[in-house]
Amino acid sequence: MTILTVLLTAQVAGLSFAQGQPDHRPIFRDVSATAGITATHRGVWDPEKSRQGYLAIGQAWGDFDRDGWIDLFVTGNLDPNALYRNDGDGAFSVSEHSQLLSLPDVPSGGAVWADYNNDGWLDLYIVNYGANRLFRNEGGSGFQDVTLGAGVGDTGKGTSAAWGDYDSDGWLDLYVTNWSCFPECDPVDFTAQQDRLYHNNGDGSFTDVTVSLDYALTLGAGFAPAFLDYDGDGDSDIYVVNDKLQNEIGNVLWRNDGAGCGHWCWTNVSSESGADLLINGMGVDASDYDNDGDLDLYITDMVYQMHLLMNDGAGGFRNRARSSGSAINMGPDAGVGWGAVFFDYDNDGWQDLYVAATNYHQTFPELEVSFMNPRADALFRNDRHRGFHNVSAASGIDAELPTLGVAYADYDQDGDLDLVTGNWNSGYRLLQNQNGDKRWLSLDLRGGGDVNRDAAGTVVQLTTPDGMTQLQTVSIGAGLGGNNQLPLHFGLGDATAADLRIVWTNGAECSLDAIPANQRLRLVYGVTAGCG
C-alpha cells in the first residue's frame, strides 16, 4: 500500500504538496515501550452493546505536578484513561492519581489541560460520550471532581474542547463540540447535538452562554473547535469544524465583536471569510505556516481532500487546496484525515505538518466501522515558499495504524518537538524526534492580573538576524481531542539569538532583544522586566 495517497503532487501559486525525496530526511523513533507508554484505546460500534466507542481520542500534554517535566494524559474510550508522570529520564510512570481519572463507566474522547481557576496548577477537562468531567488540580497532591459545581457537565456526545479567554477578563472560557445521537440513532440520517460555549465566572463556576451564538449553527455535528485571533484585532474568535453528513451545516467562523448586544456579540463570518467549508470535517489546527504574520488554518476531511486556508490578512481565507485542485487528495484508495498539527520538527523556522489518518472503504455498511482501517500517517516538510513535501517514508512515522489523534511536546527537553499519536482499537505511540541539529527557543508564558494564568491568546513575534519573523499564539486544544504543550517552541535554524515582541491578551506589549538561542525562557506578565 502506498503511503497516504494524500500525497499526490499538487501545485498552485508557489505552494505544493508533493511527493519527493528532499535532501533533509526527518527521523522519529518509536520509544513507547521503553518509555512505559502502554495505555490502550478500545472502540467499537455495535448496537447490541450497552457501551459504544466513538470518534475522538485524547492525548493531552501538561506538567500537572509542576516538576518541570511535561506529563501525559490519554483517554481509553472503552478502556480506562491513564495519567503518566514524566520521570525526567526518558521514561514515564503511571501516576497514583490515574485511577480517579480513569472513568471506567463512560467512554472518554478528547482531553485538555488548562488552569481554569488561575491558581497556578493545571486542571483537566475530559470530553465524554456522556457527561463531561472537570477535575481541579489540588496543588499537585491529587484531583477533585468539580464538574457539578462548575456547571460544565454537558451530557452530549462530546468530541473535543478548547479553552480561550474570549472576553479578555483574565479567566479561561470553554468551547465544547458535540457530534450526534449515534449510535442510538441511524448513523447516516442522524440528529446532531448542540455545541456548548461556557463563560468562566471567575469563582469556580461557569455560565452556559451558547445562546449568544446562532442556535442553528451550533447544531453542526461538531468535531473540533479552535480559539484564534484570525483578524488580528486583539481578541479571540472561534472556528468550529463540523461533520456535514445529513445536516448540511458547514464549518463556522465566529468573529468576536465584543460586548454591547445584550450578551456577548458573535458574528457569523463563515461565508464572507471563505471559511465555510461544507465537508465531513474532523480536525483543525491554526498556525502562520507562511510566516506572513497571520494565522492560517488546516482542516482534515473524510475521503475527498484536506483543506489549507491561507489567511489573506484582510479578514478572509483562500483555500490553496480547493481553488486550484491542489488538495491533499486521498485518491481512489480513499483515506480519512483526523487530527493534524503544525509543528517545526526540524527547527528551521517554518511550520511543518503532521496528519493522522485511517483507511476508508465504505461508510457504515450495516453499522460496521469500515473507515477505521490501518494506514500510514503523513508528515509534510514546509520548504518555505516552495511548498510542502511529503517526507513520511523512512521517517519513522510510516507504520500502518488507524490513527485518530496527534499532539506534540518536547518531553525529553532536548530542544526538538516529539509526538504522541493515538490509535483506534490499539494504543498510543510516543515518537521521539532525532532531529537535533538546529537551534531553538522555548517560551513559557505566564499571565497574572487580567491576563489568564496560561496566557492563552498571547501573541509572540520572533525575529532572527536574517530578518525572518515568526508568529505564534498560545492556544489550548489542538487537532482533534488533543492538547499540545503550552510553551511556544520556535525553531531558529542557524541563528544564535532572536528578538521578541509579546502582545498579552489585555493589549500590553513588551520587547526583548538578542535573546540567546537554545534555552527555555519563562516570561511572567507583570514580573519579568519589561513585560507588563
Q: Which terms would index this structure?
A:
Methylamine Dehydrogenase, Chain H, Immunoglobulin-like, 38% strand, 532 residues, disordered N terminus, globular, 2% helix
CATH superfamily of the largest domain: YVTN repeat-like/Quinoprotein amine dehydrogenase
Q: Strand arrangement, largest sheet?
A: 1-2-28-27-26-25
Structural class: mainly beta
> Using DSSP, what is the number of strands?
39
Shape verdict: globular
Rg, Å, rounded: 21 Å
Query: What is the CATH topology of the largest domain?
Result: Methylamine Dehydrogenase, Chain H
**Unreliable spans:** 1-17, 47-51, 322-327, 362-367
Biggest sheet overview = 6 strands, mixed
Tally of structural domains: 2
Task: Please indicate the percent range of residues in DSSP E strands (runs of 2 or more).
Answer: 35-45%
CATH architecture of the largest domain: 7 Propeller
Let me know the average pLDDT: 87
**Number of DSSP helical runs:** 3
Helix content: under 10%
Q: What is the CATH class of the largest domain?
A: Mainly Beta
N-to-C CA distance: 54 Å
What does this structure look like?
By secondary structure, this protein is an all-beta fold. It folds into 2 domains: 57-433, Methylamine Dehydrogenase, Chain H; 441-477 and 487-524, Immunoglobulin-like, CATH 2.60.40. The protein is 2% helix and 38% strand. It is built from 3 helices and 39 strands. A 6-stranded mixed beta sheet has the order 1-2-28-27-26-25, with no helix packed on it. Strands 3, 4, 29, 30 and 31 form a 5-stranded antiparallel beta sheet that branches. The longest helix is centred in the N-terminal third of the chain and has 4 residues, at 32-35. It is globular. The chain starts with 9 loop residues before the first strand and ends in an 8-residue tail after the last strand. 56% of the residues are buried.
